[in-house]
Amino acid sequence: xxxxxxxxxxxxxxxxxxxxxxxxxxxxxxxxxxxxxxxxxxxxxxxxxxxxxxxxxxxxxxxxxxxxxxxxxxxxxxxxxxxxxxxxxxxxxxxxxxxxxxxxxxxxxxxxxxxxxxxxxxxxxxxxxxxxxxxxxxxxxxxxxxxxxxxxxxxxxxxxxxxxxxxxxxxxxxxxxxxxxxxxxxxxxxxxxxxxxxxxxxxxxxxxxxxxxxxxxxxxxxxx
Amino acid sequence: xxxxxxxxxxxxxxxxxxxxxxxxxxxxxxxxxxxxxxxxxxxxxxxxxxxxxxxxxxxxxxxxxxxxxxxxxxxxxxxxxxxxxxxxxxxxxxxxxxxxxxxxxxxxxxxxxxxxxxxxxxxxxxxxxxxxxxxxxxxxxxxxxxxxxxxxxxxxxxxxxxxxxxxxxxxxxxxxxxxxxxxxxxxxxxxxxxxxxxxxxxxxxxxxxxxxxxxxxxxxxxxxxxxxxxxxxxxxxxxxxxxxxxxxxxxxxxxxxxxxxxxxxxxxxxxxxxxxxxxxxxxxxxxxxxxxxxxxxxxxxxxxxxxxxxxxxxxxxxxxxxxxxxxxxxxxxxxxxxxxxxxxxxxxxxxxxxxxxxxxxxxxxxxxxxxx
Lengths: 224, 372
Prior knowledge:
The complex is a heterodimer of chains A (224) and B (372). By secondary structure, chain A is of the alpha/beta class. In chain A, 34% of the residues lie in helices and 27% in strands.
């Protein structure tokens, strides 16, 4: 059997307010195989986003072992972790987090600045990613000239442009109307089915979770 | 708006900084431009300036008979006994009296200073109480225009001409016949001898001979060096005082830049978090914010230099410490001043922007998202 893409062994995460420990995740162990489309659900404060952040390598566990795409994240320094993220993770945010001063094409091109690609190649890759999300005709538009659904599609194009191993989405439909949310979930479904992208989403939306192949519920920092 | 005000603050500091350097540069240019490479000046040993120097007629004759002195086409030796005295004249506008230097010269003086040109009127006639007035004196003092009469040395002197000297210090002087001036002030001595060398290489020979002549107690200097030395003290004073003041000002501008950059960091926590989540290292964030601060400072610096460059149209005057007389000069911008001013503005941008940029680069991604 092939190694899982994501492996968590007894992972705990606590935050500290003054000297008070606030546990967020407690002894989480899980594996996610490559090609999975997984939805993490749970009430606010259940620790879903924290878990997603740990897997994305933008936060570190307090205890436990976390291995993603063959790398034990606890062993990486800050700069190694940043490099690892740029190669391995595509992140999709609830509020898109596009840079307002950049066009759609420039926003998508952004992660490619960390690669040795030439400007021409970067532009070509970004244009292909935008075409894939159905925004070939919006390359020169600024975020404020796009609808919420379109902005999220630009964010997805930015997440996939480096061809990452793992796509992580934090409430990707949380700020969208039903039709746009449907489109986004269709797009993620397509990326999973056609391009074999492993996708992990955090969502409150049962309709969005339905599109995943597997749903995990978290409550008070542990699997329900 | 904050960004604009910060750039404005930096612009003001750079304006003052450039203006001070332009002032010192203008002073140096004026005085250095007064001297010529071909000429040498002889003054009494230990005299800081012509004003403090005395050479009697006997000494003057010995000096003027040296073989290294150039001869004009008519066979006359190019050496002039000159005498300088100070008088008080009322300034235009304030009516306050200020010192003006009068230089008693001979016809050779004009030959040796080709930059001195008559702009209006005529030269003085030998034996008459007539003067010609430098452009800067005519512009800045009252009662000294063409055709007017000015009283000094117990005589009334008629202004018969106005002269220019390509902006050199002579323009801040009044010139007349040396013999008339000596008589009017009852001075049996001259202040200096200016002479033109037949060959610039003759300078060392002439200097060592005159300075070791037992009949004389004199110092010989190239005219250009003599005037450059005169500008040294005042230019250094202006520079030191000006730079001290601008460094104090710059602290304010740096704090302004810091506040702007902190605000900029605070407004962009999401951007910072996003960039870091995408894989940009801390170094990139530090450089990006630092670059922004430097860019802001560069705009301010450029604006300050632009403002300061408009000062070139103004002439200012001050008392020359070496001669105690009023000296008019312009603000002169130079490539070196532009480079120094831009470097100073970049330094302000760097020191003002470093801490906020450092804070941005150290921000934890999760906290950045939480803050937004």
